[in-house]
Amino acid sequence: LRVAGNMISKVPPNALEGLDNLTMLLLNDNQLEDIGGSLKVLKSLSFLDLSNNHLKKLPDVLPNSLHQLYLDFNHISVIPNEYFKQFPKLQYARMSNNELTDNGIPLNTFNVSSLIELDLSHNKLQKIPPVNENLENLYLHANKIKEFTVDSFCKTMGWMSFSKIQVIRLDGNSIRQDNIPPEMHQCLRRARIINI
Fold first, then answer.
1. CB of 67 closer than 8 Å to CB of 88
2. Is the C or the N end of the chain the one with fewer CB within 10 Å?
3. Percentages of the chain per state (helix, strand, coil), in multiples of 5
4. Do 73 and 96 contact (CB within 8 A), yes or no?
C-alpha cells in the first residue's frame, strides 16, 4: 500500500483493519506526528517506511513481522529500552537524520542478532553504540563521534569471535587516524569498506 506524499497527519485506529495480508506500507513523506497502535493489526507487514514525517518518538506498537523499518528524517531523540527485540525478523533499520544522542539510546538497543543493516547517520551521537556481532552494514557518518571503540563490535576477540561487519562508515565524525586501536583489524576482519 503506497500512500506516500499525501499530507496524512493521522492514521485512525481502525483505518487498516482487514488488511491481514498487507506486506508493504509506504507512509513516507507525510505529516505524521504519532502512529499510536494503528499498525498493530497488520500481522503480515514486513516493510514499513515512515521516513520524512514529523515523528518525535518511535511507534508504540508495530507488528512483530517487520523485516525492514525506515524512520529516516524525523525528530526521534529516544529509543525505548529493548525496543528492537520485539521484532525477531528485523534485518534493516534506518534512523538517519533524526535527533538521536547517546543518552537517548539504552546500552543494548542494537544488540539484536537479526539485524544486518543499521543506519544511524546524521544524528548527534558521540559514541559508537554497541551492536550485535551479526551486523554487516553500519552507517554512522556525520555524527559527533570522537573515539573508535572496538568493544562496540566485539565483546571478546579470538579466532572464532569477531564481528561480521562488512561495511562501516564513520566519516564526517571527529575520529583521528592515530586514535584507532590496533585490535580493530582483528575484530573487523571481514570488513571490506571502513570509512573513517
1. no
2. N
3. 10, 15, 80
4. yes
- Residue 19: burial class (beta carbons within 10 Å; 0-12, 13-18, 19+): middle
* Cα–Cα distance, 104 to 119 (Å, whole number): 16
Sign of torsion over alpha carbons 161, 163, 164, 166: negative
DSSP string, 87-117: -TT--EEE--SS---GGGS-TTTB--TT--E
Please tell me the distance from the alpha carbon of residue 175 to that of residue 164, in angstroms, as a whole number: 22
Residue 86 phi, psi dihedral angles, 5° rounding: -80, -5
Which residues fall within 8 angstroms of residue 160, CB to CB, at 6 or more apart?
A: none
Sequence length of the chain is: 196
Residue-wise pLDDT for 102-111, tens only, equals: 999 999 999 9
Neighbours of 184 (CB within 10 A): 19
- The answer to whether the beta carbons of residues 20 and 38 sit under 8 Å apart is no
| pTM of the complete model | 0.95
Q: Any idea what the Cα angle at residue 71 is, between residues 145 and 36, rounded to 5°?
A: 125
* Other beta carbons within 10 Å of 36: 14
Report the C-alpha gap between 27 and 113 in whole angstroms: 27
Q: Cα–Cα distance between 73 and 86 in angstroms, integer?
A: 23
Give the pLDDT confidence of 69-120 residue by residue, as tens digits.
999 999 999 999 999 999 999 999 999 999 999 999 999 999 999 999 999 9
